[in-house]
Fold:
Amino acid sequence: MTYFIDRRPNAKHKSAVNRQRFLERYRKHIKRSVEEAVNRRSITDMERGEKVSIPAKDISEPVFQHGPGGARNIVSPGNKEFVAGDKIRRPSGQGGGGGAGEGGPSNQGEGVDEFAFTLSREEFLEFVFDGLELPHLQRKPLKSLEEVKMVRAGLSRDGVPSRISITRSMREAYARRIAMRAPIKRALKEAVEALEAEERKDTVLRNPTRIAELKAEIERLEKRIAGVPFIDTYDLRYHQLSAQPQPSNQAVMFCVMDVSGSMTQNHKDIAKRFFLLLYLFLEKHYEKVELVFVRHHTAAREVSEEEFFYSRETGGTIVSSALNLVNKIIEKRYPVGQWNLYVAQASDGDNWDDDSNICRDLLVKQLMPQLQYYAYVEITPHDHQSLWHEYESVVKEFPERFAMRQIVEAGDIYPVFRELFKRRLSQS
Structure:
């Protein structure tokens, strides 16, 4: 049996392997604590680690104990009162108390504190975004030669030791040894047969000189065979690598947020927390995803990340201005054949009269045929308004690629986010 021991040093002498095994074993408890933490956190501390507690009863391990049967005589070390054969009286009272709290001694017997430990930032985000993905992500044609993958491209006699092909090198060495020894072995066989024939002759007919020459020849041939090297630099073969262009799965996410006067500060905070979750999700799981931030009231503007989350600009509401801006940015910078296009929109559903019809037409005729996925969240505890109802007709035409959900309070953000970006069984 072969044993593999991982002796790689871990930070602060901790076992990373054991920690990962522990996190996997108690994934259900940790995930529940993480979900609770996401719902109660503010925007600024969304990506720090988290202290997690697991009930002690849930981390108990099976142990072997003595059964009730059999005769057992035990005298504990340090005993001054009992000898073998004495019967010990049952303790009186209700048992010892637990730890003292604010209300005085406990009468509930012994207890065990919950097991608590801290998740790092990476571990915390791993649990937050477990099972999520960008829906319908596709590979697009090449945009440039920058995205390449190093693949094996045959063998060469020149290379570095780390890329040596052991199997092919040994095969070449074996073939070389066969080729070099074959004529020598044939000559050796002929010399041995000639020597045997000469030695079988009568003593009178034997030629001592000829026998001595054959023996010398046999010795020389045997030395030549033994001198053939087991492996030579000529035999070495190395794997060659070449840069192979890869189809690009790059994507762009448009974050569209309503900052009109109807959006209260609480609504804006919920929208910002939703977009921050989206930002962290994309940052952690995807390398080729760009983000475009768009804020709108009566007019829409492309803004920086800082301005998107912290600007205090406000005004009326014309949602179509944001959709028109997104469409223009796509036409100018993100060709459909080279990019996976996504839009996430957050609004309270309030819109200018007759503009909701324009939004529906923009989505159905221009945007949705280009997009991989459109996620709309409406932040309101009230009945839906015209924008929601117009978007329902978009869902009917694009049921797989247009999704809309309602958020009433901060506790709804994480469940809604997971529902919008949950992993699909198959990609279209």
